[in-house]
Amino acid sequence: MKKVLCIILPLFMSGFLFSQKKLPAKKPRIIPKFNYHEEFKKISDQIMMYGLAYNDLGELTKGIGPRFSATPGYEKATVWAERKLKEAGAEKIWTQDVRVPIWVRGRESLQIKTANGDWKSIKMLSFGNSEGTKGKDLICDILLVNDTKELVNLTSAQTKDKIIFVNYPIDQKIINATDSYLIAAKSKLLSASVIGAKGARGLIIRSITTAFDDTPHAKQIYYEPEDKVKIPAVTIGVKSADELEKLLKNQTVKAKLNMSAETRGETVNQNIIAEIPGKKDGKVIVIGAQLDSWDFAEGAHDDGSGVVQCIEVLRTIKTLNIQNSHTIRVVLYANSENGGGGRDTYAAYVKKKDEKHIAAIGSDAGGYSPRGFSLDMSPQRRRLIFPWKEYFLPYGVYDFDQTDAIQDIAPLKKLDIPLIELVVDPQRYFDYHHSVEDTYDKVNRRELLLGAAVLTQMVFMIDQAW
After folding, report:
1. Given this model, what pLDDT does residue 378 score?
2. Which residues lie closer than 8 Å to 220 by C-beta, 6 or more apart?
């Protein structure tokens, strides 16, 4: 028995030891660098309790007011922005010269008269960069056009010496108000060049707005280089537009248009740029908004809200002592409303310097409740962001399906830089957009701060995960 045990025991032990050697080695447990839910809450708590964005917006809109390109208001805004960025903790601040047009609105008026009536004044706004009537009365019959097919079928004989009135409403059936606005805004019906080429003398359009009031909403006009004549263009409110169409269906209506609007060459404004250098490298995450507004508007939603949210991002990173791996940069763009010189200048700078940008983030949709982010980038990059949804959901942010980023970050797409646009609830934005109604009181403090919080959270995630 002992002999058998002496034989079996070593065999058993050797088998046991052999089997132990064959067990796979345990993989080391990967401990995340951050608990992202906790980090998101720290950012949100800081901004929702102590954020200064709403106070800053009051200073910008009420203290400075309209800040149109090439005006003293814009110069005051640049001084204010540099001071605010420094107070927020930016470690480097500089300016970038931008060539901008000197467009002056001047005096403007629009009157209409039926065959048996007196002249009646209509509230209106000249299109940005529109040519005027040199301060003289332009009196012509009005010709109504409702759609592109109708315009194409009109002959030059029909349009010659007429003022074309385009009553093309925004499509209220489209739930995403931004989509409905862009469809209307891109219509050839709104092109002064197309209408001028048919012999027309002027253009009146129905304001592109979701509101049902009589407030005119401005837009920028573009002329083609080959235009022999640059016709004046104006916009009128929705109620006036509907009333004018009713008149035109029954009788001839004349318009008397008088505009002293003109472009007086160019001057230089500045982009304002500020950053916190990266602790790991100099790769850039840029977040931007337009600093200018229309000449008649406080520009609270468009885009004062984006400006103060960008400043809040830097302030929060410094306050929470977040050790950013990459450079976090804010760009406040000049001349977004009537030219786009600021965004083109910044994109040219990045290309010339061959700067490595990890992502460009924009906030230009108003200070409403955030709903998501539009991801204008490769599918591979989009897939990296999708798993972050769980961290954003507690803040009401769920929409990561949109793929268009517009306005001031758009030129960076040509440099293969991933673009991210803050998506907010769009239902009220175009009630006020580009009008005198875009004022400080239309912005809700809590919604504005929540937008700043999720912007900061997105910057944090890109900085840590990309």
Report:
1. 95
2. 127, 128, 129, 337, 338, 339
